Every structure is written in structure tokens, then in C-alpha cells.
Amino acid sequence: MDMLLELDHISKIYGDLHAVDDLSLTVPQGEWLAIVGSSGSGKTTLMNMIGCMDTPSKGSVKLEGRKLEDLNAGQLADVRKNLIGLVFQKFYLVPHLTAVENVMVAQYYHSVVDEKQALEALEKVGLKDRAHHLPGQLSGGEQQRVCVARALINEPKLILADEPTGNLDEKNEKIVLDLFRQLHEQGTTIIVVTHDALVASCAEREIMLNHGVLVGEKWNDEKAREAYEAAGGKPASTGAKVESAQTGETAIGFADPTKAAKTANLLSE
Amino acid sequence: MTNTGMFFRMLFSAVFRRRSRAVMAVVASLVGAATLFCLAMICIAVPQQMNEEMRAYGANLIVTPTESGADGKTGIDSAMVKHTTEMVAAKGSEKHATYRYENVRVNAAPYVMAGIDTAEVRNLNHHWVVDGKWPSAGKVLIGRDVADAMGLEVGGRITIGYRASDNTSTSASDSSANTDASGSTSAPSDSAAGSDQGTSGSASAPSDEGAGSANAETEGETSNNTGSQSSANSSTTGSQSGQQTQDGRVSSDIMDTSGTEFRVSGIVDTGGSEDSIIYATNDDVTKLTGTTRGVDVIEYSAGTEDLNALVKSINSMTSMHVKAQPVTKITSSDTRIITMLQTLFWIVSLVVLVLTLVGVGTTISSIVSQRRNEIGLRKALGASSAAIGIEFYVESAMYGLIGGLLGTTIGFGLAQWLCVAVFDRSIGFNWWLAAGSVILAALVAVIASIPPVHRATRIDPAVVLREE
């Protein structure tokens, strides 16, 4: 199994604060990983480093075998547009562009604009009839689906989603998770940053951060775990000398931190 | 759709779907373009207007004969006047007047009389203050100094005598005077009467406003006057030596007051040399002298932009036997005032330009800062700094273009209104200036957007997208 992403003892340090502390992690192609943790645990910082939007203070990030620290700003922009699809909690749609134009913006910076393909992407997320509406005319769930359509339009190998359902109601949350599920089935690697237990439970694997330190890892899909280990994959680890840190090669299990009740409700539907 | 199509789609969306912000930027450009275009139009209109205004103060070009005939002087004949006028008219608008100067006597005292076409002189010299009427057949217009010296008033009578001997000169000295200075000075200065009255008075007297005084500012003026004076002296001697004797004494005609009686139709007061001249119609002068000859001076108010080129072209035609000289007093005053006005306008324009830059820059800066998230997103989607910079520069140029187009139109309306209100004249639309104004507005908008866009392209997407 090829590793799409390899984090080797990466840290992000702001003064005395270690936003991410000595984390090592490998993510194979096609895996659905959830990074969980409470607010301020370093999830988004980690996602930014994986998404080439930030650089680690220490350690190395490899995407498809390429060390990101060796790349300049232009090359990092190329990696972002060619390999990564981004989904944000606050959607970040361009307010003066219609839904289809927002999707086409990603095509514009990637390669060639194709309106038909953009409309198909919107159709996939169930928004073809809203394609020519401005973001202000769409609901939060619809805006997030446009954001997902924009993320998948260039068929990226890795989708990074930062709290993708954070601003959505349960119905729209389910729609978005279904979309991720479809993408995962098509072989797309998905890394979701969330503190939502339901969203995390949809992933094959979860790692938990606490104040920048890896404190746990668990697999929700045993087959995926076996395949991962068979391919030589190792549990995530940290070199941080902190109590309860997952420092060795043995994963420390954890309970999903929040929204347990909501998860139970949704799972029962 | 191509990527270029998408580029313009994004551009038009940014401009037309974010109208309130776009309107701010357009208005900032509009105000600048309107003010600058209005100032520029006035900058062009004012010199034209000033030229016309200054030309109302008399001639800016004088033409004199370069040689005299065998009988002393023949002047410039009517055919040559016509030809010279055609040359001047070919370079622009023109007004002209001709003068034939003769030395005459009034109560035995020497004076200069000018034969004129009343309509021409009146049309050329709007600044002359005439008490009474302009001369007509049998009536003369006398200068204020003449009137004061003889206690004359409008309606009074004046007897003017003509002596051929007063107007006879050696052709050599006359020719040299004519060649060196404006011809207007030569005729009277040759005479004994001129010498008696004082060379300065007679030499400058015939030269009309501008001509005489302007020549005082031309290079070689000293030598001109010297030439006139010397010729006057020599001719005085000549005329005296040529006088008849009676009983062994030189015959004196000091008590000879015979002549032709004219009625004083008006008194002219210019404060210049014209005040010591008697003006009559050409026909009356011809009757008085009994001879027909060409004129001594043609004065032009030439509308050409390059007066010196016109002077050169006339002087290069030696076969015309005339000499052209610019009246430097008028042209330099005109140029000085226009230069001052234009400098003032340029300074104001510069201030407006800086204010426009600040205004547009502030607006664009505000627009860019409001779009930080969008810029961060675009960078996160893989946009390069250059691509984002180009998008914003083109957008700024678009604001400038729209503002420039509207501003230029408004500026023209404003300039038109100002010119009609202040100068009482309409101005034509200058397409080149308009194109320049629109381009400048776009350029200013782009330049003003450089600092904020430069800052925007350095936005760290991670920082922006993390902000609440």
C-alpha cells in the first residue's frame, strides 16, 4: 500500500506554544482519517501543514513522496491545486460568483474551465437547479455542498475537510457525509478535522490530539486496519514527553469526545 | 468557456455584482478624471482665448518695405499688401490695417499724418479710445497730444498743409531706415519737421500700439533708432541745403499756415505714440499730397501659433521687398500670461492627480481588505500571487476606465459650461485629450491599487482562512 501522506516528527511552535508537538503519521492512499480533539488542540494547524498552507517548525511532511519543505511557494500552490481539495467549515465561497462559477474558479486555477463538468459536480451534490444562484441565496447546507463540489471538481487525491459539518444542521450534515462516503468509495483519500463524534465515526481511522499532542488512535474499520498494517503501516506516534501521549507503536484507544447523543440518534435512523 | 472567458466573467462579476463597492471606486476615479479633463480643456481653451484677447490690443506683426523708389519712397503697393495678407492668412486667422505716413504742417508746426482705411484700423485696434467719431471724408481723427497742443475739440477745424520738401529724402538713408526699423518710423523721421519736433517723437509717433513699443524690445532696436535718427539728421541737412534762398537768406516758411481745412471728427487717446498723429482717410491724404503711393506699414494681428516661422517665411521672399517683424511686446505679454496661467493649471492638475491617487488608492485598499478571505481562498485553491495581482489590477483598471469615461464626459460638460460662462465661447471636444484622460484614469487606478494589491498577494491563506 502506497503512503500518500507521511508526517515525520512534525511540530509547529509559536513561541512557547507547541500547536503541534512532534507528530508522526502515515496515511495511505484511499484512507478516510478523522483528526479529532477539542478546540485549540492543533487540528486545524495540522490540516494547514498537510494542505501546504503552512509549514512545520520542525519535522518533514511528504505528499506522494515529495518533501514539502523542499518546495517554494509556487510549487506548494501547484501541489495544492493538483493534489488537494479543500472543504471549510465556513465554506468560503466567493460571494459575487454563482454556485457554478465558484466551482469553476477551482478549475480556472487548476487547468481548464469546463462549465458542463462544473454543473455535473453540482448535480452530484444535488444542487444542479441552484447552480446559478449566488451564495447569499443558498442555505448553509447548500453552500457547503457547493464547497464540496468545488473540492472534488479537479478530482484530487486528497480531500482535506476542516469541520465540514460544523455549521450544518443534521439533515445537511448527513448529506455531506454521504458525499464523503461516495468519494471514499471512489478511492479518494479523505482527512477530516472535526470534534463531531458522528463525523469522526464515519472515518476508517481516528487520531486524537490534545494541546498539540497525539493522545490516542483508533480504527473504526478493522479491514482497513489489517490492510494498513499488512502494508507496513504503523500507528501514529509522538515524541512529546507528555503524560498520556501516544509515544510508542501501540495505539491508545479513546472515546469520542462530544456529540455522543447526536451520533446515537443519527445512527438509529 | 475558456479560461480567458472565466477571467472576464470573474471580473465582471466583481465589478457589477458588488455594485456598492464598485461605485465607490468608480466615483473616486470619476471625480479625478472630470476635474483633470476639465482643467486640461481649459488649459487648451485659455491660450486660444488669451491669444484672441491679446490680439485685440493691436498688431503682433508689422510689415514694412525694404527699399524706396527713386522719388524717395513708394511704399508697399496694394498688390503686395494683398499678397502679404494671403501669406499671413494661410497660417491662420488675420486682421490687418495699412498706414501711409506723411509729414504735414499745422500752423507751420510739423506733424505726422497717417492715411488709413478707417474700418481696418478700427477693427484691428479695439483698445483705442476715440472721443467722437472715426475719420471720414473731410474729417480727421487727431491724437490727444495734438488736440491738447492746439486746443482742439471734437467738431473743431484744423488746417493741414503739405510740403513735398518735408517728405523728400535721400533714398539711401530712407532705405536704411526702412530696412532697419519698422517702416512706420522712417517717413516722418526723415523730415526737417521731424528733427524739429524731436526725433524720438517723430520716430515713434507713427508706430501704432505694439509696433513702435514692441520694436523698442526687439534686438537691434538701438541701431534702428540710430538709423532713423541719423537718416533724419542727414535728410534734414539735405532738405535744408536744398531750400531756396531769398535775398541771400534761407527762405523760411515758418509763417506759412496755408493748407486744407479738415473738421475734427474725433480725438484718439491710447496713451501711446498714436496720440501725436493725425489720422485721415487714404483718399484725403492722397488729395492733400497730390500723389498716390503705397503704404508704409502693414500691421497684422496674425492668429498663427508660430509667429516667428511666419516672419521667416515672409522675410525669405526677398522678391517681395518687404520686411516682417514680430511685435515682441504683444507676443511676449501674451506668452507670459499664458505660461503663468498654464503653470497654475498644471500645479492644480498635479494636486488633483495626487488627490485622485489617494482617493482611488484608499477605495481600492478598502475593497482589497474586504476581500482578504476571497484572496486567501484563491491562494488556497492554487492561485499564484501573480494571477491574483493581475485580477485585481485589471479590476482596478476597469474601475478607472468606467470612472474615466464618465468623468471625461462630465469634465467636458463642466469645461464647456465654464468657457461659455467665463469666456463666452464654446469649446470643441478633443478626442485625443479624452482618450488620454480615460487612459490616465485607468492608469491612476492601477497605480493606486499597487500597494494594497501587493499586500494582498502576500496574504497567507492559512492565516486568513483561520480568521473569524
UniProtKB/TrEMBL annotation, chain A:
EC number(s) recorded for this UniProt protein: 3.6.3.28
Keywords annotated in UniProt:
ATP-binding, Hydrolase, Nucleotide-binding, Transport
* UniProt GO MF annotations: ATP binding; ATP hydrolysis activity; transmembrane transporter activity
| Source taxon at top rank | Bacteria
Enzyme category, top tier? hydrolase
What Gene Ontology cellular component terms go with this record?
A: membrane protein complex; plasma membrane
Keyword Transport annotated: yes
Region described as Disordered: spans on this chain: 229-255
Q: Provide the ABC transporter domain boundaries.
A: 5-236
UniProt-recorded name of the protein: ABC transporter ATP-binding protein
UniProtKB/TrEMBL annotation, chain B:
Xref: Pfam families = FtsX
GO cellular component term, pick one = plasma membrane
Give all residue intervals belonging to the ABC3 transporter permease C-terminal domain.
347-461
Q: Does the keyword S-adenosyl-L-methionine apply?
A: no
Where is the segment annotated Disordered?
164-258
The alphabetical list of record keywords is: Cell membrane, Membrane, Transmembrane, Transmembrane helix
Q: Where is the composition biased (Polar residues)?
A: 188-205
The record's annotation in InterPro entries points to: ABC3_permease_C, Macrolide_Exporter_MacB
Record's subcellular location: Cell membrane
Give the Low complexity compositional bias ranges: 164-187, 222-246
Q: What is its main location?
A: membrane
As for membrane topology, the entry says: Multi-pass membrane protein
Record keyword Kinase present: no
Recorded GO terms, molecular function?
Answer: transmembrane transporter activity
Could you list the residue ranges that cross the membrane? 344-368, 399-423, 429-450
Report the family membership: Belongs to the ABC-4 integral membrane protein family.
Q: What is this protein called?
A: Putative permease protein of ABC transportersystem
What species does this protein belong to?
Bifidobacterium saguini DSM 23967
